[in-house]
Amino acid sequence: MGLQRGRLFWPLLLLAAACSGILVALYSAVELHLGPRTGARNTTSSSRAFFGPKASNSRTRKNLLCQHPLSLAVQQHPRFRNLFNLSTPVLLSGDLFTQQLWDSLSQHKAPYGWQGLSHQAITSTLSLLNGSESARLFAVSRELLPGCIRCAVVGNGGILNGSCQGQNIDAHDYVFRLNGAVIKGFKNDVGTKISFYGFTVNTMKNSLISYSNVGFTSVPQGQHLRYIFIPSDIRDYTMLRSAILGVPVPEGTDKGDSPAPTGPSTATAPAPFTSPRSTTALAAPFTSIVGPRPQTYFGPDSSASKFKLLHPDFISYLRERFLKSKLINTKFGDLYMPSTGALMLLTALHTCDQVSAYGFITSNYQKFSDHYFDQTKKPLIFYANHDLSLEATLWRDLHKAGILWLYQR
Ligand SMILES: *[C@@H]1O[C@H](CO)[C@@H](O)[C@H](O)[C@H]1NC(C)=O
Ligand SMILES: *[C@@H]1O[C@H](CO)[C@@H](O)[C@H](O)[C@H]1NC(C)=O
Ligand SMILES: *[C@@H]1O[C@H](CO)[C@@H](O)[C@H](O)[C@H]1NC(C)=O
Ligand SMILES: *[C@@H]1O[C@H](CO)[C@@H](O)[C@H](O)[C@H]1NC(C)=O
Prior knowledge:
Residues 21-63 and 263-294 have low confidence and may be disordered. The protein has helices at 2-28, 58-61, 70-75, 80-83, 99-105, 119-126, 166-170, 187-190, 201-210, 234-245, 312-321, 340-349, 388-400, and strands spanning 150-154, 174-178, 196-199, 226-229, 307-309, 354-358, 405-406. The chain has 13 helices and seven strands. The chain is α/β, with parallel strands linked by helices. The chain starts with a helix and ends with a strand. The chain has a seven-stranded parallel sheet, sandwiched between helices. It binds 2-acetamido-2-deoxy-beta-D-glucopyranose (NAG) (4 copies). One 2-acetamido-2-deoxy-beta-D-glucopyranose binds at residues 158, 161-162, 369, 374, 376-377.
């Protein structure tokens, strides 16, 4: 016993020491600097490493000042200052819906618009996103959050396997994760904090199917967690609406899924057929439900403030300005969209003061497996619907410009 414990103890201790060593080194490199996200800057630009992951706690956070706000780095960069518009709305909420928006978005296919989607499906979803939280990512409005909002966006790249970045990631104020965000068994590498989970219904369900064997058996849930829906299909609007109403999905590909528990009784009984919490036209009879008990994806709290919807115009803006792939002019043009990771990282860049990107594609991606949780090394797959090479170039350039910090090794 003693011997076994000894054998295990020293590698663990060394690992812990290595992790905290990294943290201490980065901590000491940090220089604090005042600067709210918007408004006039009064910053001497520093040539020092602009921000490394740093431990902070909520007691001191309010006093933490931005050492190097990304908006300043954007302003100072000849190319990126013409690409970024930090005033562009990131989220679509009910109060932004107008006839004019309908007419304009009806010209474009999802995720860039609503071509071919039913007016009723869109408006019935958006009408539920009518509270003030639906228009913003953070729980309180930005003006009430002084200081520096530091975000980490965690992609699922193989570079994170053995990275020891868990503590650094969790030290950020907000952590974005996406798709198959496996935590179990990787706390040391990826941390546990999660503020936002981004997905399309398709990528979420694919992740639950493909990665359940490595521990992704449910969508992350938590009191403070917010979900970011990417509107890539009618499925996303339908699922979002059902999630807020607390009813099973009434139609389409996901018919019968229970995105949220259908009332208090579900805690004790599998009850997809029991009366939903809300009696609306959507609570039609669900006669064709077959198969296993539907997943409860988003947990017991299904209030509208839990769910955010990316604005189709924001996705178009990102494609046009940051990720205008050559694929758009090929036969795959209609399939092309920025990857989920890219959408989350660019969302963070348009809402946080400082952004660190972990698990995103780097120039030496071939050294690493596709995902950090792969059981055997698998090459990164370049699907025709994304342009990961273009994304890699963008992250490299944003890192060089000091607009984000890209984890590399
Ligand atoms: C910038 O800082 C200097 C020195 O602290 C101060 O005199 C000046 O008024 C500040 N400018 C702005 C725009 O805040
Ligand atoms: C930035 O976006 C806002 C909101 O959409 C718009 O009103 C403004 O004209 C844009 N600014 C520039 C320079 O394009
Ligand atoms: C949003 O819409 C719901 C349902 O129509 C309504 O009950 C609620 O009062 C509305 N909230 C706001 C802030 O308008
Ligand atoms: C993950 O890292 C461990 C050790 O750091 C290594 O043994 C394993 O092969 C790696 N997994 C993959 C899929 O590369």
